[in-house]
Each structure stands twice: as structure tokens, then as C-alpha cells.
Design brief:
There is one protein chain. The chain has about 325 residues and is α/β, with parallel strands linked by helices. The protein folds into two domains: about 5-115 and about 290-310, ATPase, nucleotide binding domain (Nucleotidyltransferase, domain 5, 2-Layer Sandwich), CATH 3.30.420.40; about 130-285, Nucleotidyltransferase, domain 5, CATH 3.30.420. It has nine helices and 13 strands. Strands 3-2-1-4-8 form a five-stranded mixed sheet, sandwiched between helices. The protein has a five-stranded mixed sheet with strand order 11-10-9-12-13, covered by helices on one side. Strand 2 (about 15-20) and strand 3 (about 25-30) form a beta hairpin. Helix 3 (about 115-125) packs across helix 9 (about 290-305) and helix 7 packs across helix 8 (about 260-270). The chain is globular, with a radius of gyration of 20 Å. The relative contact order is 0.16.
Amino acid sequence: MRHVIALDVGGTGMKAALVGDDGALLHRARRATGRARGPEAVLAGILDFAAELHAHGVEQYGESAGAAGIAVPGIVDEHTGTAVYAANLGWRDVPLRALLADRLGVPVALGHDVRTGGLAEGRIGAGRGADRFLFVPLGTGIAGAIGIDGRVEAGAHGFAGEIGHIVVRPGGAPCPCGQRGCLERYASASAVSEAWAAACGDPDADAAHCARAVASGDPDAVRVWREAVDALADGLVTALTLLDPRTLIIGGGLAEAGEVLFQPLREAVRRRVTFQKLPAIVPAALGDTAGCLGAGLLARDLLDTPDPSEVTA
């Protein structure tokens, strides 16, 4: 049975799958990333995990995987196949595509985790059928994936879609990127958690607690939530003014609040648009499997596009 290997590497864990020609997940596995042991151990763990998946495919289906796809966080150069930098993994300039290809003996595609997740949402998830979409996961930070006709734009230098670093509050909270007032300092899940913990006096309170308090009408929670939604709407309107997406897909931990987030967000965006066309604002459909599914799509693309340098996430 023809299949590909898909790997989604996160800061704490790795998700992997063998994916069939029809997109079915034939085999799934998870493993800790092991970042506490250092970047060399992380890299060795990735290569070993991929090799085990490859061996499993041969044993179960009688043939080698046709290709492999891997999604990683940080700064990624898809054209050269290099994991340029990832603060949470501690690596710099890792030729990950070449290392995996040497280990597995099959072509490999490397993608950025958010862009790869966006690829999956665009092709088989909430953006399916949309010729232009923007995927924005609201997690520890905020990033974005710009979808155009079934692919995701990486940009000239691999930075396309960094909506979390649009300045929405000039002179505001400092951001690790060096700017002040970035969107992710106000509307990420971690930013909401921090603001709500301060407001309610519970250092363990997080964004999920805040969402539940909003639903119950807690005035402090409503204030924290409204400030986050207003900042998010400001950033999204800037993005849709520039990109004119047909569909705006919101994912990540904050989107798990459902209509507690989407109802006020749709209204806040609607109030801000003037000449712009209002896109459909929808929740992501694939959850935490998006990165792995997207890596599988990258790998399957290689079966029709043998040159990995032509494939971007």
C-alpha cells in the first residue's frame, strides 16, 4: 500500500502518522520531543522516530514510504530544507530535510508548523473550497498561514503570515521580537491567561478559566476578554485589508471557547470594516492534528513533485 510518513514536531511532543494515498491515517504515534536533553538529542529523537515509522510501514504494508513530510516550529527555510532557528528546541541552521532524506532514503519536505497546519485546514479542513484563506491559531503566541489556491505562501524570507507581530497598541507591552504593542501580547491564549490571572488573583488561572467566567457573566472576565477580542479584531482587520481572504480560520487553544470567542469577534470585525469585504470567520476543523495532516500533504505532494525545493508550506 502506497503511503507517506508525516511528522509534526512541537516544543514538548511529536505527533506522527503513516498516511495512505486517500489521506487515511493508517498508523499514528506520539512521542516526547525531549528538549530538556538539548538540541542534539532532539534531532536524534526525530531521526529515530522517523526511522521507526519507516520500518513499521515496510513491515505492515510490504513497501517503503514514498516520501516524508515534517513540520517544525521557529524560522524555517523550506526551499533549502533548513530549520533555521527554534528557541524552544534550541537549534540553529539544522539541514533537517537532508538529514531525514539520508536516514530514510526517500524524498522529504520540510515545513513551518503553522503554515503546514494551515495547508491542511485549507485543503481538507475549515478552508476547503476557499481560493483565499487566512489561518490564525491563537496559542502561546499568534502566527498565520496565508492560503492561495491550495498552497500556503511562505514569503521571500520565510516570514509571511506573522500576524502576531502586527502592532495593535503602539507603545504598549514589550514583545520578545523587539517591538512594543504586538497583537500576540494582547490576544494570544497566554496573554489572556496572564491578564485573567492578574485580574482574579489566581496565578494558576488560564484562558479557559477566563472563558468560563465570561460565560457566567463575571465582569472582570468580561473586561479581560473584551480587551483581547478588540486587539484581535484590530489585527485581523489589518490582515484582511492587505490580503482580502475569503475565509478567516481561527484555531489554537483560545478558539476552544467556541461562540464565547466567535460571537464577539465577528461583531468586532464587522464594526471595523468599511470598504473591505467581510470574510467568513470560522473555527478551525482539525484541532491538534492539523500539523501532522499538513506534513502528510507535503509528503504526498512530493510524489507528484520530485524536487523538494519546489515544495513550500
